[in-house]
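pasting for ref
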Amino acid sequence: LQNDPSFPPVSETEELRILDKETGTPNLLDLVIKKSPIKEINIYSVDWRQHALFGRLLRYEKNAVIDINKDQNNCWRRYIATKELSHLIIDRSREHFTGNAEKLVEYLLGTSDVQLDASLDSEHLAARFAAEILMPYKYNYMLEDKSLSTYDIAEMFKMPRKIIDVMRSEKYQEQRKEAYKDIP
C-alpha cells in the first residue's frame, strides 16, 4: 500500500502484495477500499485442518477479513487473496454471498448435482476476475506462445500453474478474446 495517511490501515505482507512492479498489475486492496463500503481489510494466514479449504472472506459492514490456508505457497496465496478481494467488488447483494459452504465445496469438487445459483456463479466470476487482475490481457500473447512453459509464465506472474493451465485452455482463450475484442 501507499504510505498515504488518508488510507485506513490494511494488513498486508510482502508475500501477499497484489501490486507487482514487474507486471504493473493494480493494487486491488487500494481499489476495494476506494470503491466499496469496506474501509479496512485484514489478511491472515490460518492453520486449517481441512486442507480442501484454501481461503475465505468474512465480510462485515465496514471491514473484511480474508483467511488463507497457511499451507498454500506464495502463488496460491496471492491468487486466493485476489479472488477474495474480487468478491468485495463484484458481489453487491446477499444472494451472491456463499451461505452454504458445504454446497459450494460439493459444486467445486463435482461430487453432487448441485444447481448453479447466484452465489456459485459469483465464485466463478471472482476466480476469473482474480486471474485477469494477476495476468492482464496485454500479456495474453505469452499464454499463446508455445515456447513458454506454463511453469515459466506462472513464475513470471507469481500465479499457480493450475490457473495458467486454465487460462491457456482453448475455451478460456476464446472467451477472453471475445471479452476483450472491443478494447484497444
